[in-house]
Design brief:
2 copies of one chain form a homodimer.
Chain A: H1 10-20, H2 28-36, H3 44-56, E1 61-65, E2 68-72, E3 80-83, E4 89-91, H4 97-104, E5 110-123
Parallel strand pairs in A: 3-5
Antiparallel strand pairs in A: 1-2, 3-4
Helix pairs in contact in A: 1-2, 1-3, 2-3
The first copy, chain A, binds a DNA duplex (30 and 30 nucleotides) through helix 1 and helix 3.
DNA sequence: TATAATAATAGTAACGATTATCATTATTAC
DNA sequence: GTAATAATGATAATCGTTACTATTATTATA
């Protein structure tokens, strides 16, 4: 079973465009509500399906935080900070990526594809 | 509302004892099935409630992996490797903790309480 | 440009992990 | 022993996500 040819979809591109324009690492639900304003017929299932597909195509990345998936159109190496008070996600300026990536080679656990580093605490606003 | 006094519970200690004796980072369901052999009346809700309580008391740690909570009675600083094929979790010998912990001070995002580093890939068995 | 093939959709049902509820039971302080 | 209350077991409810299916949109080709 080779992978099916992908057809253009207005919904998919609207979802991608929405995610690309924001920096708050939204959930599927948040993207859904936002894009629905533009495409009222939009279905939540369509959002999930396309986010998953965009992720497979490496046009975005996902990370699970607090049991919920958060999406990020920035696929560059960077880490996140989760505020346990307001539950918002922030980008960090952590530059340990290369360091940890190098270490991945020596973990002796198997083949490391990627890694994810998440910081937890209380953001400036909430302090 | 001050925190309620905690009473002894056979179930809670059995759950903690079970988790302490294993190194496979089980889910609540797995702990439930295991402890139920010893306490047949055990309820899944009781397992969740006590795991959450033990976590608050810092007797164990949780991390969400693949959308599911995994528990670990080893509260020492260490990181994990998740095999995307068999979906098992392994401890790693990564020793970047101090390095990342130091960096936490300089993130300029607020107050960092802790961090979590997770590696993803394919384990030796599955390769 | 019509037609045929099929990918994508909307709507909804189903699912799995977790949390909440509540009457009953166990622990503890007196 | 008795009263106060924390913890339990059973089950219902919730929430994020996935699966299903009839219909619609896209695309290749005649």
């Amino acid at each position: 079973m080779s992978k099916a040819i992908q057809k253009f979809s207005r919904q998919r591109e609207a979802i991608y465009k929405n995610l690309s324009s924001r920096y708050d690492h939204p959930t599927a639900e948040q993207i859904y509500l936002d894009v629905k304003a533009e495409i009222p017929s939009l279905s939540l299932g369509t959002v999930y399906r396309n986010l998953s597909q965009l992720c497979t195509d490496n046009r975005l990345q996902v990370f699970n935080c607090g049991g919920i998936e958060h999406f990020d159109a920035n696929t560059d190496n960077h880490y996140h900070f989760f505020c346990e008070s307001c539950r918002k996600l922030y980008d960090t300026n952590s530059d340990t990526f290369k360091f940890i990536d190098d270490e991945s080679e020596n973990l002796n656990v198997g083949q490391v594809r990627t890694h994810n580093l998440m910081f937890y605490g209380t953001c400036k606003n909430c302090l």
